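Researcher: We're reviewing a set of sequences before deciding which ones to prioritize for further study. For each one, I'd like a predicted 3D structure that I can look through quickly. This is Class I SAM-dependent methyltransferase. If possible, include the structure in token form so it fits the rest of the review sheet.
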Amino acid sequence: MDDNTNYFEVNKDTWNKKVEIHVQSEMYNLEDFNAGKSSLMPYELRALGTVKNKSLLHLQCHFGQDTLSWSRLGAKCVGVDISDEGIKLAKQLNEKLNLDAKFVCCNVLDTSKHICKTFDIVFTSYGTIGWLPDLKPWAKMIAERLKTGGTFYIVEFHPIVWMFNYEKAKAEMKYHYNQEEVIYDEYEGTYANQDSKMVSKEYGWNHGLSEVINSLIEAGLEIDYLNEYDESPYDIFPNLNKTEAGMYKQENQLFPLIFELKATKKSPL
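Model: Here's the predicted structure for Class I SAM-dependent methyltransferase, in token form for your review sheet.
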């Protein structure tokens, strides 16, 4: 992990700058959120069902909207993120909304150094694993933080999506599905405000589905299911059209845009 310290620092700086832009964006719609609107999407709500009185650890929570949405549903939540500014705002929102979520600022791979309790649910969603160079320590940490019989759930953009470079007018296939080498990207704006003049500097890694699944199995989790969908809940890729169900997809969608995976921590032998 030490070899990647500089990558993490650059990413942290970018995410700190994103917070100020995202909090004002239409995508995050903080006004409606503060008025009671949930930021959670149908996939995760359907997968996790009733969370009342369950403990939930939210990995890479940004400024905490999903964490606080789970808290509104009765879960006892802890959110983790690398961004100081994100965690600062999450704590402010938690206090403003009179909720009882806790927030910890750290690299997600270091979660077990900062949190020792175990949880009924570990949750992560939409644009998280691409910031990690290796999923084995990530999966090991998830297993450490789950109670026996606990649930891990991830809903994430499909690995095929990250094979493309989106800077030009037409998306160009550029990166390997399982590319091990770090990918550096520098561009103006963010996914929540593409007109922003902020320069995003980002280091990321591509992870195929086999890597996701095998890292979790190796860590002692049992896969309940894996589903892939030709739609995204967010309009963040080129040439997407809104469906009647409120999702986004291309006119002739040839590959999945997201996947979801649910797993259970097995009892020790």
